[in-house]
């Protein structure tokens, strides 16, 4: 690092996965939008007559994808959207952002016992909400695996299950296939749902069609700053952190910065409940180390920002991060907690990343101990042992992004190659 030339800092934020895919899919997305406008003058094809007039409802432990799917499917097939349980804070924010009322609870819809039903975003009996009669199920639209415990009826039903990252992607594609006009507000709602379910296009379940739909929907919804939309959703999601896995918390608002081939990955979590996040500190630190190895990041940081008290705590996952942060912020890491108190620094863009970039550009050099730790973390051996992120299902077939397959001591993440980090 000492070979870096002197001069003013030149810190470049790397393009996010969203920005890369918007650029990569721009031409095809523009063609889809153009074709959709031309199709508006053509007859509307209703391929899915079995679903006309259904009540569309998602799974219990309701999330954004299931609510967005219910609303969009109801519009597509002239039906009624419903919810299976109370909504989370992200869903609440997104519904308000795009101007939708929260759907009624399924059981409270008038005459629902006599209505046909289509399940969206799930296929398991264990996730059925109270009041759904299996004899009334006419369809399933889903993107999850068909496992033991799936809904089974004595007659043929409409089934649309695709291996895509979000059920919102399936419904977006169905709008184009059926040549039905996709309103701006529903396009925005579906866009938000795809971003949520694919971890801003970073999930291992994300596919090329998810990325294309994000690019296309952003044009129809007239969203110029899709990254900004994703960040606002994550801030809303952060109010209910206990519902989310460690990889989701770490990657929910993560940006990478490049300064002459040195990569700084910097995630933040803005919340009023810092205690809950800090209780997950050890797991987050482990996932930071795994992500560092997986993505070959030179430095990885994660800041927990208290939006009520306007202060921040910085998690330090290794010796290299400790040396850089202590000098850049003129602060000491608590050896027992691996946390640096950043005081009133609450802006990654203005007060957190710039000091790191300035220090690196000035010729900052790691100690031999830290260099050795970084070399171990980025080694081929570490890459072979880190495992990978997968969508894992629990006994109720509820999916969660977890790291699996690694050789580890605790939480699948305490890598032998990273032992140099332990102090």
Search tags:
423 residues, alpha/beta, six-stranded mixed beta sheet, six-stranded parallel beta sheet, 15 helices, 14 strands, 39% helix, 17% strand, disordered N terminus, disordered C terminus
3D structure, described in words:
This protein is α/β, with parallel strands linked by helices. The chain has 15 helices and 14 strands. It has a 6-stranded mixed beta sheet with strand order 1-8-9-10-11-12, with helices on both faces. Helix 4 links the parallel strand 3 (80-83) and strand 4 (104-105). Helix 12 packs across helix 14 (368-377). The protein is elongated. The model is unreliable at 1-5 and 408-423 (pLDDT under 50).
Kindly summarize this structure in a few lines.
With 423 residues, this protein is of the alpha/beta class. It has helices at 17-24, 26-39, 64-76, 89-98, 167-178, 184-197, 208-220, 226-237, 246-251, 274-279, 281-295, 319-329, 348-361, 368-377, 380-385, and strands at residues 12-13, 55-57, 80-83, 104-105, 117-120, 137-142, 158-161, 254-259, 262-271, 299-306, 311-316, 339-343, 388-393, 399-404.
């Amino acid at each position: 690092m000492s070979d870096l030339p002197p001069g003013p800092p030149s810190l470049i934020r790397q393009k996010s996965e969203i920005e890369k895919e918007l650029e990569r899919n721009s031409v095809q997305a523009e063609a889809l939008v153009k074709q959709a406008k031309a199709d508006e003058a053509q007859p509307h094809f209703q391929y899915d007559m079995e679903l006309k007039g259904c009540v569309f409802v998602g799974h219990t432990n309701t999330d954004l994808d299931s609510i967005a799917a219910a609303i969009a499917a109801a519009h597509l097939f002239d039906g009624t959207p419903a919810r299976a349980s109370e909504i989370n804070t992200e869903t609440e924010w997104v519904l308000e952002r795009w101007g939708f009322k929260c759907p009624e609870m399924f059981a409270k819809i008038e005459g629902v016992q006599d209505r046909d039903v289509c399940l969206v975003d799930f296929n398991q009996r264990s996730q059925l909400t109270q009041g759904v009669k299996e004899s009334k199920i006419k369809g399933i639209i889903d993107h999850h695996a068909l496992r033991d415990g799936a809904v089974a009826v004595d007659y043929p039903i409409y089934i649309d299950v695709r291996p895509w990252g979000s059920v919102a992607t399936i419904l977006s594609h169905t709008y184009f296939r059926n040549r039905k006009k996709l309103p701006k507000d529903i396009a925005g709602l579906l866009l938000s749902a795809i971003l949520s379910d694919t971890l801003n296009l970073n999930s291992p379940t994300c596919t090329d069609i998810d990325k294309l739909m994000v690019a296309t929907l952003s044009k129809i919804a007239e969203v110029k700053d899709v990254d900004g939309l994703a960040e606002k959703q994550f801030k809303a999601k952060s109010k209910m952190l206990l519902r989310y896995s460690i990889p989701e918390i770490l990657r929910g608002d993560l940006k990478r910065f490049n300064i002459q081939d040195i990569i700084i990955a910097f995630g933040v979590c803005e919340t009023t409940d810092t205690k809950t996040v800090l209780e997950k500190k050890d797991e987050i630190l482990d996932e930071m180390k795994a992500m560092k190895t997986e993505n070959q990041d030179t430095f990885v940081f994660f800041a927990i920002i208290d939006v009520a008290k306007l202060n921040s705590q910085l998690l330090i996952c290794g010796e290299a991060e400790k040396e850089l942060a202590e000098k850049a912020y003129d602060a000491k890491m608590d050896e027992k907690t691996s946390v640096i108190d950043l005081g009133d620094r609450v802006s990654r863009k203005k007060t957190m990343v710039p000091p790191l970039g300035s220090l690196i550009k000035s010729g900052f050099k790691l100690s031999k101990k830290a260099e050795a730790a970084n070399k171990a973390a980025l080694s081929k051996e570490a890459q072979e042992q880190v495992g990978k992120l997968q969508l894992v299902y629990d006994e109720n077939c509820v999916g969660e992004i977890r790291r699996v397959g690694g050789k580890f001591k605790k939480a699948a993440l305490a890598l032998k190659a990273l032992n140099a980090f332990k102090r």
